[in-house]
From TrEMBL:
CDD domains: SET_SMYD. The lineage of its organism: Eukaryota, Viridiplantae, Streptophyta, Embryophyta, Tracheophyta. It comes from Mikania micrantha. The keyword Lipoprotein does not apply. This is SET domain-containing protein. Residues 33-412 form the SET domain. It comes from the Eukaryota.
């Protein structure tokens, strides 16, 4: 028998066009029944209103499929590694940030000590209890790199992807040393590789779970025929890959926009360098978590498409910080009291500077939001309300939307002039033909 090498499908567009049930089930599971995902006339799939929305109505709250906090944001904000809500206390948030920023800089020693006390909650700030945060739960694998808001979040993340990507003693990776090398490479080059690794890990872990369930069923039925042909495992892998399959994607090195400082004549060599970088990263990841049964996931083609999917889907992860609320509260106190309290809080606010309001920032893939197309005169926007303090994407109607209309968001700052908008949208690989662009071009 001739063995053919199996490849995973990369894009789910054909399935979506033929009325794939995946999005219907997803929408039903989120109870966002006011929307529908279906093919557009011109550019793949899109999201359509299945009811009328008034301005300000909630259109969708979308739970991320995979997400991560940017490595560079980890000093600024201590958040749950699963739901991205802020954890610890106002003291921990402020003290930790000032302490970590102060490390290695010949700053005021006395102030650094104060920051350390704050970080360890040995110093209490006035009114901080008005802003309670969930306690800090350690990673079950002992890595001391990821923390959680609850045991259930820690367990969920462990089962979802972290058990393979943990550098602690309990890690289920092939080699913690290899994993650390992969993480270091990502932090030195592009932390998008960490998100790609998460996407691959969650697919492997889902596959293993499905296989265990199937094995139990198989024992009951004593039916081994499909296993002999090896079809069952591949179809389980396909099933595990499905949520990522549905995302719009292109190869990273083909779709990445040419940076301003790279001349057009050097474009080919720039794209080759990006491909080489992805290859290096993938080799390091293979050394850390390769699973022979999931080999198709580790092809450069798939890796490049996963990264390209994150590039093209414009999905920032943003969670507002309670530290900003805290200082705003202090600022709103009656003058006499404020003066007294400021003596304690002002030095910390001064040390934080403008950074006091830095929110949790990252990248995530939201399965439904990522189906929304762009318009420079959108009828919806991604906007967090006061109660939206987690990593979910919140989409609100910014105009009345009629049932049957396509729901669009703006991928860029829509206040910009036509030429600037065009330049930014080039990163997404299309020229916008929305009514506003057409009118401004005429
Ligand atoms: C986040 S995805 C949106 C969903 C996508 N249409 C799909 O089929 O999955 C972004 C991609 O959709 C396409 N797209 C979105 N808005 C567009 C527009 N206004 N005109 C042309 N293409 C658009 C571009 O290819 C873009 O890179």
């Amino acid at each position: 028998m001739v063995k053919t090498r199996r490849r995973l499908m990369i894009d789910g567009e054909d399935e979506a066009a033929t009325g794939d049930e995946y999005f219907d089930e997803l929408i039903a599971s989120k109870q966002s029944d006011g929307i529908q995902v279906k093919p557009t006339n011109d550019y793949g799939k899109g999201v359509y209103a299945d009811m009328d929305f008034k301005e300000g109505d909630l259109v969708l709250k979308d739970q991320m499929l995979v997400g991560m906090q940017h490595s560079s944001n980890k000093i600024d904000c201590l958040v749950c590694g699963c739901c991205f809500s802020f954890i610890g206390s106002i003291e921990i948030q402020i003290g930790r940030k000032l302490y970590l920023q102060g490390l290695g800089s010949p700053k005021d020693v006395c102030f650094n000590e104060k920051s350390e006390l704050l970080m360890h909650e040995k110093l209490e700030l006035p009114y901080s209890k008005k802003f309670p945060l969930p306690g800090v739960i350690n990673c079950p694998g002992g890595c001391k790199e990821v923390y959680y808001c609850s045991k259930s979040c820690a367990q969920a993340d462990w089962e979802f992807s972290h058990s393979l990507l943990c550098t602690g003693e309990g890690s289920k990776s092939l080699s913690q040393k290899a994993l650390s090398k992969f993480i270091q490479h990502a932090n030195e080059t592009n932390d998008i590789f960490l998100l790609a690794a998460k996407a691959i890990s969650c697919t492997i872990l889902k596959y293993r779970k499905l296989k265990t369930t199937c094995d139990k069923e198989k024992d009951k039925k004593k039916n081994h025929i499909s296993d002999v042909l090896g079809n069952r495992n591949f179809s389980l892998l396909l099933k595990s890959w499905k949520p990522l399959l549905m995302g719009y994607k292109r190869r990273w090195w083909d779709c990445i926009a040419l940076p301003d400082d790279v001349d057009v004549s050097d474009e080919d060599s720039f794209r080759m360098q990006i491909k080489q970088l992805a290859f290096e990263s993938l080799e390091l990841l293979k050394a850390a978590i390769l699973d022979e049964e999931c080999l198709p996931l580790f092809s450069l083609e798939i890796y490049g498409h996963i990264i390209g999917m994150f590039e093209l889907n414009n999905l920032d992860l943003v969670v507002a910080t309670p530290v900003e609320d805290y200082f705003l509260y202090i600022d709103d106190l009656p003058e006499a009291e404020k003066k007294e309290i400021n003596e304690i809080t002002q030095p910390f606010l001064d040390a934080l500077g403008e950074d006091y309001s830095v929110c949790c920032q990252g990248t995530a893939f939201f399965p439904l939001q990522s189906c929304m197309n762009h318009s420079c005169c959108p009828n919806a926007k991604a906007f967090k309300r006061d109660e939206d303090r987690d990593g979910q994407a919140t989409i609100l109607a910014c105009k009345p939307i009629k049932r049957g209309e396509e729901i669009t968001i703006s991928y860029i700052d829509e206040e910009l002039e036509l030429e600037e908008r065009r330049a930014l949208l080039a990163d997404y690989g299309f020229i916008c033909k929305c009514p506003r662009c057409v009118e401004e071009e005429a």
